[in-house]
Write a structure and sequence with these properties.
Layout (H helix, E strand, L loop, with lengths): L3 E8 L5 E9 L15 H19 L4 E4 L2 H5 L11 E5 L7 H12 L3 E4 L9 H6 L2 E5 L4 H13 L3 E5 L4 H9 L4 E2 L17 H13 L6 H8 L3 H14 L10 H8 L1 H16 L5 H21 L1 H4 L2 H14 L4 H9 L5 H7 L6 H11 L3 H10 L4 H18 L5
Parallel strand pairs: 2-3, 3-4, 4-5, 5-6, 6-7, 7-8
Antiparallel strand pairs: 1-2
Length: 407
């Protein structure tokens, strides 16, 4: 399978997810740039089958926002989706071709939602403006032109979508203008800001995680650490007693609860409860990303073989912790990592170095749809592209099963 897909959330003003943008490429070792001129009919059919089988797992019943290339248009990829479950973005450059314009106009008449990107309103593009349902632009464009475009959108019952929402100031500006949809790294900030990373909750959470993933987990010591956190203790006893309700037993100690749960189930429970508590103001998508990255890194490591393949538990922990402590500032990240009770290899991996660095780079490149980098890091990890496609879906299934944090 040479068809690679990833998704990124499209947020509303409240930070909720309204739809997912699908990032895709036909990149492979034979076609590292993903040049669609070189894509065969067989590869197109494989891609359509892959989407058909996995769209529910990937999009989780939310609409898919897809930037259509000429190849996707000509091969009717829209037919894989119900009309209400897809937004078709058309690069305006494609509309210069008369046959393509006719094809898109037909989709519009059939009731599909059409978006135009890189678009700010002017009288010169009035005809295209009337044609679109969603106008997409960069928030860093001229402020007056953005404000006028948003005003026109709302006057004509259209939606406005802003890219480049990377800082709080841009987010507030977008909210002031009443922009409908937003995309940007602002929504991928760490679960905890660096200045708060030394707080008691983060210390307890990460210490427990490190203990659980140690070569020989000690139930007695883990019990003692959990018992220092009253909320974790209450939640653990509550869930265990719910599970045991039909047996007429009452579990009253943390140690009893841990013995009944077992280490594997405890791992699943502790990071889910921990992530929910770390910062309730974080977008749900960020917590889901933590689960995805942890699982995807783990699966990559298992497929890469060698000594790294036997350390998949550590790689999983690296992916999880990278969301908790993540930062684009190297110095701030270094400080956040300094006191974490995890191995040096995990810390190095999060900064992109050491034995886990290529795995971490591969996961982040895949998340962001940076397909040229995916090619490079897949080679470095000795990973086949067909494996990447399958493991991405496996990781999304994991998120779907365990990532129901609520909205």
């Amino acid at each position: 399978m040479s068809f690679l897909i990833s998704k990124q959330a499209v947020f509303n003003q409240s930070g909720g997810t309204d739809m997912y943008e699908m990032l895709y490429s036909f990149a492979s070792r034979k076609n590292p740039t993903g040049d669609e001129i070189n894509v065969t009919d067989e590869e197109v059919e494989e891609a359509k089958e892959y989407l058909k089988l996995n769209m529910l797992t990937v999009f989780d019943r939310k609409p898919a926002y897809i930037k259509f290339s000429q190849l996707l248009l000509e091969n009717n990829f829209h037919e894989l989706f119900l009309k209400e479950n897809i937004v078709i973005e058309i690069p305006t450059v494609l509309l210069a071709d008369a046959s393509t314009l006719q094809r898109v106009m037909r989709l519009k008449r059939l009731g599909y939602t059409i978006a135009l990107s890189g678009f700010l309103y002017s009288e010169d593009n009035e005809e295209l403006f009337n044609f679109a349902d969603i106008l997409r632009f960069d928030i860093n464009s001229d402020a007056d032109e953005i404000a006028y475009t948003v005003k026109k959108c709302h006057e004509r019952s259209k939606k406005a979508m802003a890219d480049g929402i990377d800082e709080a100031e841009a987010f507030e500006f977008a909210r002031e203008l009443d922009i409908d949809y937003m995309r940007g790294s602002f929504f991928s900030k760490p679960v905890l800001e660096t200045k708060r990373s030394g707080g008691p909750m983060i210390k307890t959470f990460l210490e427990i995680i490190a203990l659980l993933y140690s070569p020989d987990p000690n139930i007695e010591y883990i019990s003692a650490v959990i018992s220092t956190d009253p909320v974790l203790t209450i939640k653990l006893l509550k869930v265990i007693n719910q599970l045991c309700a039909d047996k007429g037993n009452t579990v009253s100690t943390v140690r009893q609860a841990l013995v009944m749960l077992g280490i594997d189930r405890l791992k699943e429970w502790i990071y889910l409860v921990g992530l929910q508590r770390l910062n309730r103001n974080s977008p749900t998508e960020l917590l889901r990303l933590a689960l995805f990255r942890a699982r995807f890194c783990e699966r990559i490591s298992r497929n890469s073989g060698g000594s790294v393949g036997s350390r998949s538990n550590e790689v999983y922990l690296m992916g999880l912790i990278s969301i908790v402590t993540g930062s684009s500032d190297a110095e701030a990240l270094s400080k956040a990592l300094a006191d974490l009770p995890v191995s040096a290899e995990i810390k190095e991996g999060i900064t992109g170095g050491g034995v886990f660095g290529d795995i971490f780079h591969l996961s982040k490149s895949y998340e962001n749809g940076e397909w040229d980098k995916v090619v490079v890091y897949a080679d470095a990890c000795n990973i086949d592209f067909s494996v990447l496609s399958n493991e991405y879906i496996e990781a999304q299934k994991f998120v779907k099963k365990y990532g129901n944090f609520g909205s």
